[in-house]
Design the sequence.
């Protein structure tokens, strides 16, 4: 490849999981999303697809997206979405306000580190 950048759409490098269902197949496959833009993504995983396959992709905070396979190389493949998405939504955490992880916990001083020992109490060897 040449050093000339031919892409017109910026993409984000990231690591997240997506569920993909290939056209007319009921099985859902988990794949790694290696980069993502508003118009498509690069996926990686054991899923065997061919250029032109129709797909349904489901990503956190984005939902279900329809698209087609644009290219395949080894265990990586490019997907062109039918409609643009807001790819920044996939980066946001999925914590709900009422989830226990989202609650602020009070600081507990019950378990403190022991005090430093008095150097005069050390035994010389």
Sequence:
């Amino acid at each position: 490849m040449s050093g000339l950048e031919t892409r017109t759409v910026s993409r984000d490098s990231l690591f997240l999981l997506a569920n993909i269902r290939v056209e007319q197949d009921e099985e859902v496959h988990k794949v790694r999303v290696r980069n993502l833009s508003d118009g498509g993504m690069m996926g990686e995983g054991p899923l065997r697809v061919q250029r032109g396959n129709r797909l349904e992709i489901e990503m956190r905070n984005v939902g279900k997206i329809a698209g087609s396979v644009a290219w395949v190389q080894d265990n990586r493949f490019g997907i062109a979405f039918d409609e643009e998405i807001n790819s920044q939504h996939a980066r946001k955490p999925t914590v709900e306000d009422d989830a226990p992880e989202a609650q602020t916990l009070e600081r507990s001083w019950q378990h403190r580190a022991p005090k430093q020992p008095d150097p005069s109490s050390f035994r010389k060897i």
In short: The chain has a mean pLDDT of 81. Residues 12-91 form a domain with the Thrombin, subunit H fold (CATH 2.40.10.220). Strands lie at 12-22, 28-36, 40-44, 54-59, 63-73, 76-81.
